[in-house]
Write a structure and sequence with these properties.
By secondary structure, this protein is α/β, with parallel strands linked by helices. It has helices at residues 39-51, 67-70, 73-85, 102-112, 138-147, 168-174, 178-181, 190-196, 240-243, 249-254, 272-278, and strands spanning 26-29, 57-59, 94-99, 118-124, 201-207, 223-224, 233-234, 258-263. The chain has 11 helices and 8 strands. The strands form 2 sheets. Strands 2-1-3-4-5-8 form a 6-stranded parallel sheet, sandwiched between helices. Strands 6-7 form a two-stranded antiparallel ribbon. The N and C termini lie far apart (37 Å).
Length: 284
Amino acid sequence: ASFPRAPVVSTVREALSGLSGDAMPVAFMHGMGDAGPNPGMQSLARTVTDAYPNKYAVALSVADGLMSILTPLDDQLNQFTRAVRADPKLARGFDAVGLSQGNLVVRAYIERVNNPPVRRFVSICGPMEGIGTCPMNPVYELICPIWKLDKYGANIAFSGYWRDVLHRDQYLERNSFLPDINNEREDKNATYRANMLKLEKYVLVQATQDTMIVPRETAVHGMWAWGREWGEIVPMRSSEGYKGDWIGLRTLDQSGRITELAFQGDHLRFSSKWWAENVLPVFA
């Protein structure tokens, strides 16, 4: 199967003129089927240090390769926390970049742990409101037969962000991960919101032709309305979670800390130029 790994990017020197930043390090968390040591992830980290020679950047080795599929997200969060705390260069805080599924690990870290704290968070193609269908993709053709046996109970990462919009009660009751970190249940966790509100910037990036996370608007906290699979998208600012400020989205937005970006193409298929012009300046 061809996994949608991080693209190998090069440093676009002409896009870096005038960039200067502090020494805040940057940590990357890969997506499904990818790995911290893979060339794409390493190249992304390298562009940060090329742009900002005084910064440290690392693509963390957490639930790499096949384990990114087979390891439930709560366990991936524990591994991510251990990896962060094992790196003395991250001890005073860091900016975080997630790719695809990795964004849910990063956001869970911010909400549940945040020690050391995340200053700025860039989420690229993250299934922030879950995924509403099993995409027609070689990756999912491997996963879906397992997952369909017990959609919320299958002991794989994907079960943690599956959202069946036709059965809301079942989703809230049986999905142990996403309804929790989205604060969708009746009892709200005030710490989750408080920790999200410590972010200086929350950057949400979607791919205009994303075929891996469906609907693609989940990357910017949009999702199909309950009861309307393949129906109209409820955008972030119209959602219950935003209106109720369940994880602080409304407060972050109204204080100018949410940025929404898009690139032309499929899942994670951004160019070196787009990356240099849109993401690298976030760390200045």
